[in-house]
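note to self: the first set is below, dont mix up w the second
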Amino acid sequence: MELQDFAPIFGEPTRVEWINRGSLPLHRFLFHVYTPNPSQLRFLATDFHSNTWESTKSALQLQDMRDDIGIGGAFSEFVNYVVASMNFGDVRLCMEGQSGKDGAACVKLIAQKSKGMPVFSISLTKLIDSAASEAMATLSLGLFNSLKHKECALIKEQEHSLQLKTMISSEKEKNENIQTQLGQYGKKQKLQNTNASNSPNKSVHNIGSTQVTNRVVPAHRRAKTRGALLQDSEDDNERERSLQSTFEEKEKKQELLNTDALPNAVGFQKSPDRSIHDIGSTKVTNRVVPAHRRARTRGALLQDNEDDNGR
């Protein structure tokens, strides 16, 4: 920290010592450290009565004080040490003697950041009359401005904290809504999974009941019947065509036989046995497939096809 960046410091000494005070009263003191200009640092202490003391150090004097104390490093580090000591360290105000009826003869401001750390001491000069009044006014106004600045900063922090609380409340409400939706979705998903796990058994049961309901004819019998129908229909078509051609041939032969039988009708009485034998043989020859068997086959085919269409 450089001197131009130095923030005013206000405080009360942790201890006030007055050697050979006599009967003079000892009041409470306040100190004030600030920069009247960017190249100087001023130390002020007052009890707002008869004791107002100050010391102004230039940058060169502060560097010499740094060397006397034994603090190494850059000048800014020494300034930081002074600030830390005056703000958080042990600050003592040591006074000696009497200056008539107005106060002490000499005063030193001693500060130490913590035990074991370097101690710096600054001799103060007493201010009287208008100079003392001006110093007290500077301290009072500086303290007021500092408190005002801190109050404004506190208000801003409170407003920011309120905004954060509002945001947190809104986020909590959104989070609760999301949690509620997730809970409902989880229940719905669980219900769907439960239904999905139960649906196969139900489907199998329904399929089984449907099959039982529709099974008027046993499955093995229906399979055989359908297979027989498909096979029989093809074989029967071929057989029917074969029978038709055979029947046509037999009809032709029959016509020929009938034609031959007309001339022989006269000789029927002469040889009845032969005519009967020929007629019998003709009947046997014409019955390649019995009529009732052929009717049954065709009826079975027609009946099976109707049953399958119904099924």
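second set (the one i keep forgetting abt)
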Amino acid sequence: MPIRQTHMNHTAQNGAITLLVGLMLLMASSILTLGVVRLGIMEQRMANNELRAKEAHQAAQAGLEFARSQPLPRAGEETNTFPQPSLIEASGDYRYQVLVRHDHIESCTRVRAHAQALDQDGIAHPNISAVVSECQEPASLLRTGFAGGAPPLVVNGCLGRITGNPRIHPNRCDEEQTHEANPVCQPIALVSSQGMTCLETGHLDLNEGVVVAEGFSGSAWDYLFALDQASMRALADIPDSGVHWITARTSWRGATGSPEQPVILIFDQAAGCPKFLGNTTLYGIIYYAEPSECDNQGWGAVTVHGSVILEGSLGALNANTELRHWSLLSHAGPLARAGSRLSRPGSWRDWD
């Protein structure tokens, strides 16, 4: 009996040890499983946070890009009424509201875009937002050298069949127009891409102005404008920008501008070379993209304070036409700030 009792005691001890080891292994595996699950949840949260942070940053960056498409406000101008970007849809149930603010500091306009995440109920998430800012400067509509005004007439072709005595009044080269960027001022009346043998100025009253033959190569657009045509057409879509992109093939009865609100009229090739009806006075720039129709089309009684730009030859100019040099960008109005914006290098940041 003692021997059998001892055997049973050893068996019971072995069973208890096995049970204890099993419980310890089960506990360890449970702890390991919980750790793995917790780690997975943390990694998922980190991934979600990183995704939200990227979305918020991209939304704020989109705010800066939106601001670049708008006219740059002048110093002292109220900016609370400036357009704001639309809500930006994101992954999940979030959207981003972007608020753009303009602050005039020193020599630039600092544009600050703040993106805030909103849930499906429109409630702001306290931990999902981003701020980016940069200094923005206006990009000129015209190329360097035309700040004081473009020549009254630019022709990417020939000039001929002038009747009567149409008049061109060039710039007068006063002290204001003679500066470091333009040390030698010339009273330029006409610039052409062709040689003098192609320019019949006989009846044209140049008022002692200079004719510049072979003054440029390529297009008249690239000679004058600093913006490409797509950017200029985008400006025309902004209300009250002063830029009008015309495709209708009819005599022009629209905006003619004023000294305070000059205009740029872009006649697309589809519009041809329309006339101006009646005694029209226009302030700004007229551009004709059609390369051939203006060769046999007088404009009628029109006075242009600014410039007429043609992508082809000009003919049949009559006595009722008068072109006067005038700097549209030096005057007040939307065109003084309607060009696209440029970001100042080194001014971008994503912290307050």
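remember for set 2: DSSP finds three helices and 16 strands in the chain.
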